[in-house]
Amino acid sequence: MVGANEKSGLRLWRNARLATMADGAAGFGVVEKGAIAARDGLIVYAGAEADMPASVGQRAETVDCEGRWITPGLIDCHTHLVHAGNRANEFEMRLAGATYEEVARAGGGIVSSVKSLRAASEDELVAQTLPRLDALMAEGVTTVEIKSGYGLDLDNEKKSLRAARRLGNERPVTVRTTCLAAHALPPEAKGDKDAFIDLVAKTILPGVAAGGLADAVDGFCEGIAFSPEQMSRVFDEARALGLPVKLHADQLSNLHGAELAARYGALSADHLEYTDEAGAMALAKAGTVATILPGAYYFIRETKKPPIGLFRQHGVRMAVATDNNPGTSPLTSLLLTMNMAATLFGMTVVECLAGVTREAARALGLQAETGTLEAGKSADLAIWDIERPAELVYRMGFNPLHARIWRGQ
Fold first, then answer.
1. Angle 154-170/122-137 helices, nearest 10 degrees?
2. 93: which of 98, 100, 214, 349 fits an S-S bond (Cβ 3.0–4.6 Å)?
């Protein structure tokens, strides 16, 4: 019998309750008394156990889930996971009343992270990032997006992205990399934003693309970062290189970043606290995902909430992510992130869970490969010791993960 199982390559999880998160399904897409079968890392059956072809059960290595819930493996679709050091000292300064400008004058802010990343070797970056990745995986994360953006020159952006790629070899997880060279102005730019954007568009992006190091291109469109016109130059080059785009948009003010992202058919626009109705309508029309990031809102004590009601009204897809970064969201719990999205922004439990599965996959351009429990998709599963899916959003600081399955293993 063991030989037959090995030959078939089938694995079966049975006696489970499924939250398939299938697009168009009601609520969680619940299947009671469900089963999932996988071969060669792909789901070949997901549905009611009673409807499963008899041949599957006879030939498969079987796991009895004892009534536990199975969801798609979780997806963190917006992180800055690769960084060196931390900025806890800035946190202390802000708690003592220091302003953003005072922190910056003391050597803090993004420039502090740039200095730390440039000083670290690629091996050191991998070693420092692995514990953060492990924390996400321990809560059922099977796919993670990792941005660069603390290198801000060609060599260090490439170093950051190589480190991110290596994480996918060090751990059983899918890593998607994003080049965020248009993140902030490095000290050597001496305040010349246009010259730096030229460097990003003409040197950094082509160099990163030539090395196959990025799956997408991102930028920070904000008064303290880059204008819509400057971001358009970056996106034009990304388009020429065949790379999809994403955008940090409307976080601190309304520069109509959501509309800019939509105009370029961006995979996602992220943050969006100041997005107006025109922006929401543009996102919906373009099919661009709104990625909600409550960690940064909480950590910097923002008061302007993203317009969740407008996004619902206009049918904008919403993802939820940690935004893990050393300065404004040192968060490595996607479960806590869902709770924040619900309690701070009023998102429903279904919206939160879809936001870290189906819609997070869409925000990475991976909706055909993962994010739901359907035949043909990657066998990325999270098996939970819970009585109902709401527990995944309701609890704080408690992890009910029973098992994490990546590509069937």
1. 50
2. 98
> What pLDDT, in 10s, does the model give residues 266-309?
999 999 999 999 999 999 999 999 999 999 999 999 999 999 99
* The two three-digit tokens of residue 151, written as one number: 């290198």
**Cα–Cα dist 176/365, whole Å:** 10
Is the per-residue pLDDT at 78 higher than 60? yes
- The 10 Å Cβ neighbour count of residue 120 is 22
Phi, psi of 284 (to 5 degrees): -60, -45
Q: Are 32 and 17 in contact (CB under 8 A)?
A: yes
- The identity of residue 25, as a single letter, is A
pLDDT in tens, 83-132: 999 999 999 998 999 887 788 778 888 889 999 999 999 999 999 999 99
DSSP class per residue in 71-106: EEPEEE--------S--HHHHHHHHTT--HHHHHHT
| Dist. CA 265–CA 243, nearest whole Å | 11
Written as six digits, the tokens of 322 are 């940690």
Q: Which of 306, 307, 317, 322 is nearest to 362 (CA)?
A: 317
Q: Determine the length of the chain.
A: 409
